[in-house]
Amino acid sequence: MSVRKAFKRRLGAAAAVSLAVLGIGAAPAQPAGIADPWSQRAAESPAQRILEARIRQLGQDFQGDVGIAVRDVQTGWTTAFDGNTFFPQQSVSKFWVALTALDRADRGELDLEQRVTLTRNDLTLFHQPIAAQVGANGYSTTLSTLMFRAMTQSDNTCNDFVLRRAGGPEAVREMFRRKGIQGIRFGPGERLLQTRLAGLDGWRPEYQGQGFYAARSGLPIAVRQAAFDRYVADPMDGATPIGVVDALARLQLGQLLSAASTQRLLSIMSQTRTGAQRLKGGLAPGWRLAHKTGTGQVLGSVQTGYNDIGVITSPDGRHYAVAVMIRRTSAPLGSRMALMQNTVRAVIDFDRNQSGSGSVAAP
């Protein structure tokens, strides 16, 4: 076994132990009729065996720790590389916030058209385009608009505001339990997640905007490295690629939300502006993608949490849930994007091979 794969196995074991001890995001009992997301059905057809081999090769060749999962939504067949290990989500977690908000709206517990006012006190850190619109008197809008901006622009302030109105992190975790979503953890929100990852004690108002960067830069590198390594080894916002594609497939099938909310969320995800050269860069003409990206902090030359997850749809309406999650890497951005694009291309080839419109060739 290679050193990298041995390291991955140890990380996976450590994450599993921590999950059991701390009870964070623990897997709930499966409701009747919901497929077990931890199962991975063996390849049966030539097309399945080819995709399985290609996904394995993509994972093995990448210079970094990566997890990949693909689920054929029509059949439930899934293939993965390191699919049951917890990887940092970063802004992929905004997907779970939107899912929770829409679920509460379906149940009559949240009015997404309610008008709200953001103030300077609501601002967070990192990417928050809405900050430019929040003046001395605040900024008035709706929860629906904030959810849209959180998903399509990955705006941290919009996301944290919707999260608070939807009931906070525990409401997301309760939604996981109620719907039998496994293999997903939900962190404490953007402010606490990023400050802990940086090695800071907790959130302070002065960290808004550029203050966070100054505070982080003032820490000894040993403190930052220790916090970074702890997060990489056992991410508080971790998710397994197989758990992610299970949830995406169930969303596509209408098993998580009402029909209207299902269509609404998938439509929003199809308008995502971030990550144009990640999964989206691998699409062939006529194919569509509804997705959410995630990008974590960098320490030295190493980045953690470089991700893209989503549902790709063929011209004739077949759906595939895909997750590519990078725990840590120093690989150039082009290499990371190529990995994601090639994963999508492998799925497109699989679809053609399954339908008989392409030749089945060795990987």
How would you characterize the overall build of this protein?
By secondary structure, the chain is of the alpha+beta class. It is built from twelve helices and ten strands. Strand 1 and strand 2 form a beta hairpin. Helix 2 runs antiparallel to helix 12, helix 3 packs parallel to helix 5 and helix 4 crosses helix 5. The protein is globular and about 60 Å long. The N terminus and C terminus are likely disordered.
How many DSSP-defined strands?
10
Element pattern in H and E: HHEEEHEEHHHHHHEHHEEEEH
Q: Mean pLDDT score, rounded?
A: 89
Helical run tally: 12
Which stretches of 5+ consecutive residues score pLDDT under 50? 1-38, 358-363
The rough form would be described as globular
Terminus-to-terminus distance: 23 Å
Beta percentage is 15-25%
Largest sheet: 6 strands, antiparallel
What gyration radius follows from the Cα positions, in whole Å? 20 Å
Keyword list:
globular, disordered N terminus, two-stranded antiparallel ribbon, six-stranded antiparallel beta sheet, disordered C terminus, 16% strand, 363 residues, alpha+beta, single chain
Helices, strands, pairings?
Blueprint: H1 3-22, H2 46-61, E1 64-72, E2 78-81, E3 87-88, H3 94-106, E4 115-118, E5 139-142, H4 143-153, H5 156-165, H6 169-179, H7 190-198, H8 211-217, H9 221-233, E6 238-239, H10 241-252, H11 259-269, E7 288-295, E8 298-299, E9 302-313, E10 319-329, H12 333-355
Antiparallel strand pairs: 1-2, 1-10, 3-6, 4-5, 7-9, 8-9, 9-10
